[in-house]
């Protein structure tokens, strides 16, 4: 399919199918992932194409993650879907105490090539819990990798990498982008070694940093900054939230000296704080203050119809960027 | 298991029991484990008791951290484990199943090394199909269901034998694991060691169910309550469950009725929550005494040979302790390894 544009959802489907094709130890499990193909249809077609390798499980997240630990010990490569990231809390002990620590606890006797996929993020007027952005809680777990693609190319490359990873990966799928973002599938090296941050838009005046859904918020803001305010904002797509590519982040920040970080997770102890701290530790004499965070406020996710007042908007990002530019 | 239910001593409601406390078969037609299995069982039970004694002393001397003794529960653990084949089957322990871990191939020196902080020497060898002890109560059960599920997906022969305590049955993981195992009909045998307590909490505070084995009904697979101090009954019931599992007939839950004679662990003080007469009475149902009585009666060993074996296993523990202490003392830099790594397969990595 290289060459033609696909949606982010199609890219995920392709990565799953190619991953299963390449390695017959790969199995897919989760709620409604079989006949239905998942509530977003991310696993559509796999049940028919790979008989005996795609499993509808009982409705129990802890069991899905816990069983994935056992499936991996038993020699398989499980790719589990948690229907919505907000419900990963129902499995949190299995993720943080078990999945992420098994290699460590067993001194390398067992390592767990498990991928957990989960849709997250706002914008679809979802019921409570469905849009929660929990990435900071996940990045806080040693032993776990956290991938957060924003485009079809990364959705494909990072999911292939997650499935091939000898250790557990939490793969975060930005649900409002599933069908709204199109692009080509990656080829060659981009698939083999996806690592580090990625500049999604050039611009020398300041750096907007986001991941998943907010990369697109940042891109829209950068467009507006260029058109209306004559400000050239670069947009950095973090892509891999754990382990953070601190070097790549600092490099891009250093050349622009001004930084705005944008995320949909709540503010306090959010991943933005980690990024600001990282920049501060390495670049305190280079950066021009303030480094600003545009985040969701410290409150529960509101009812879907009111989520626009909660989520970081393009206007919020533009205003933050202008404040930073005008400060120096 | 209905066959076995009918062979119990005290009617429908009583645990499956084959041996009286005097070591006599309740009925002559009851199946007996082969003599070499009985011998191996007795040896492991004696070894387990000797290990408990040694580790308790080492703890008091400040040379070893927390230790959770098996005392009183040996037949439940050993009898069930004797029914699986360590070369083929998986063991998923909770944390108090030392003799099962030993029989599965995690040698005594490694076990002791783990208690002495020699974390790398304690590593489970690559050819030992066993998960490590689990500190989060019941968290191992979904793993066990997953391993057994992997076996059925791959069409293997392995049966997964998992353990948990009575307290663990209140955890969500217990439910999620049993439910999944039932739905997927996986080759899992789950032994619930009902030693009457979770630290200080009696089993009556865990459930209103009459028997923990009744839980199995809700998961659609058989559940049996067995006298956990009876090696023969534990062996036979587990053996049948293993046959079922290997045959593709799905999981079985076995509730082993026993008693935690000692403390919960070396930092516990049971006198705060139970009358001393309780463990004293339990000692009268001691599983080792019962098996020794049978072995002597059946002419497998005489009393002198049993004493010799007690001395032998004590020496074995001493030798393993020396070996464990000979491994490199823990070094701080070890803690920074094995967080994530490189190897693709479940093989050792640097
Ligand atoms: C999830 C969790 N909660 C609490 C504890 C603390 N704790 C350790 S052992 C134990 C009791 C376990 O009882 P049971 O499952 O009956 O097993 P036993 O110790 O009797 O063998 C508790 C509460 C723990 N280790 N894990």
Task: Give a description of the structure.
The complex is a heterodimer of chains A (328) and B (350). Chain A has 328 residues and is an alpha/beta fold. Chain A folds into two domains: 5-184, Thiamin diphosphate (ThDP)-binding fold, Pyr/PP domains (Rossmann fold, 3-Layer(aba) Sandwich), CATH 3.40.50; 198-327, 3-Layer(aba) Sandwich (Rossmann fold). Chain A is built from twelve helices and 14 strands. Chain A has helices spanning 8-22, 46-49, 61-73, 92-98, 102-105, 135-139, 152-164, 189-192, 213-229, 246-256, 271-283, 314-327, and strands at residues 5-7, 26-30, 54-56, 77-81, 115-120, 145-147, 169-174, 182-184, 198-204, 206-210, 233-237, 240-242, 259-266, 292-296. In chain A, helix 2 (46-49) links the parallel strand 2 and strand 3 (54-56). Chain A is globular, with a radius of gyration of 19 Å. Chain B has 350 residues and is of the alpha/beta class. Chain B has a single domain, classed as Thiamin diphosphate (ThDP)-binding fold, Pyr/PP domains (Rossmann fold). Chain B is globular and about 55 Å long. Mean pLDDT of chain B is 93; it is low at 5-10 and 343-350. Classes of the chains: A alpha/beta (328), B alpha/beta (350). Chain A binds chain B through residues 27, 52-53, 55, 57-58, 60, 62-63, 65-76, 93-94, 97-98, 103-111, 113, 142-143, 145, 164, 166-167, and chain B through 90, 119-120, 122-126, 131-132, 136, 139, 141-151, 153-154, 172-173, 175-177, 179-180, 183-184, 337-344, 346, 348-350. The structure holds thiamine diphosphate. The site of thiamine diphosphate has 15 residues of chain B, from strand 2 and strand 4.
